[in-house]
Amino acid sequence: MEDQAYVYIMASARNGTLYLGSAVNLPKRVWEHRNGVVEGFTKKYGCKLLVWYELVGSW
């Protein structure tokens, strides 16, 4: 079975900081951003709002 890959954008607020990422398991990754599980840019700047995503293919 091939995994699907997604590209997504998270934001801190309207007209706020943006973060561009990629993931195979998008729901899990968004949950990690919203709950501050992983230290890094999105936790530091509070990017918790999923504003866009797109399926970009499989591998």
Automatic annotation (TrEMBL):
PROSITE patterns: GIY_YIG
SUPFAM superfamilies (UniProt xref): GIY-YIG endonuclease (SSF82771)
Record field: transmembrane: none
Classification via Gene3D superfamilies: GIY-YIG endonuclease
Signal sequence, renumbered to the chain: none
GIY-YIG domain sequence ranges: 3-59
Pfam families to which the protein is assigned, alphabetical: GIY-YIG
InterPro entries hit by this protein: GIY-YIG_endonuc, GIY-YIG_endonuc_sf, UPF0213_domain
Family stated for the protein in its record: Belongs to the UPF0213 family.
Name the UniProt record assigns to this protein: GIY-YIG domain-containing protein
Phylogenetic classification of the source organism: Bacteria, Pseudomonadati, Pseudomonadota, Alphaproteobacteria, Sphingomonadales
